[in-house]
Inverse folding.
DNA sequence: GATTATGTTGACTAACATACTCAGGTATCG
DNA sequence: CGATACCTGAGTATGTTAGTCAACATAATC
């Protein structure tokens, strides 16, 4: 049930930018705060930009900043974009369902569904603002 | 947050054996019911045996059966044995803690802990008996 | 307008994990 | 004995992860 480094790093970066309140931060700055290697962080920030969470400014005095208010950034969406579906099995995924061969009689499916609901509820009701303000 | 095929197959096999109420089943039988390839299933059943969930009988009329009552087989334990810790990050794992570099100031850790608790509570309160009897 | 600080793009790689297969070996029953 | 099972260890194809790297594009400043 591990979260990959990519997802973890993306959230660290979002938090770092969320604490900047509108100021731009360079990749190097963010790398310093998050301890993510610069070259790898570039990739991740770029992806977050394409997903609409960040915007960037090029050239001197450039950098990244949030494109949305922290309370509009839902952690569940971020994780889904970076790591794929939250559901433990395709057959109980709402966002990307995939059939199982035994699905008709399967005694596991309701159980997976329970896990999915529990995880999704938690991740979808938490925003970046909640993390930053330590209000969980 | 996916569960691997190995974990899924192990649970399918345990369910199949749980439904047999003490009778032995051959690998081929179980393979037929679970749609898991015979050679792969062999590996998994062997592992489940070494973990103490199954016992086996060799030779003619041999096969596998449960080594414990279904209500003594906790799904969380099975998953942990086959897939590693339930926690999404090492720094919030109870069974196999691993330090994070940012741990002191990290705003994510409490959130991961919440996820861990939610998953662990669900998996550790469910037994094979619950799955078989459809009582979740 | 040259310099320099920044983000952008795309390819590339080493290491590991997953999902298996396969060729034998060994115990047990009849 | 010989058939029927489980047992053991190795091997392999494919994909994923966690990065690196070189070259490029753009914007501000001197
Ligand atoms: S796990 Fe998908 S149907 Fe059983
Ligand atoms: S995620 Fe482990 S300390 Fe932040």
């Amino acid at each position: 049930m591990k979260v990959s480094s990519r997802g973890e790093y993306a959230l660290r970066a979002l938090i770092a930018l969320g604490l900047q309140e509108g100021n731009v931060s360079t990749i190097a700055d963010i790398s310093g705060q998050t301890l993510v290697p610069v070259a790898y962080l570039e990739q991740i920030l770029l992806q977050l930009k394409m997903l609409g969470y960040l915007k960037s400014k090029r050239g001197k005095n450039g950098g990244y900043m949030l494109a949305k208010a922290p309370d509009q950034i839902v952690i569940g969406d971020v994780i889904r974009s970076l790591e794929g579906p939250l559901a433990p099995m395709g057959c109980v995924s709402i966002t990307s369902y995939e059939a199982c061969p035994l699905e008709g009689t399967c005694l596991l499916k309701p159980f997976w569904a329970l896990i999915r609901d529990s995880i999704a509820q938690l991740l979808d009701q938490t925003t970046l603002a909640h993390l930053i303000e330590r209000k969980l």
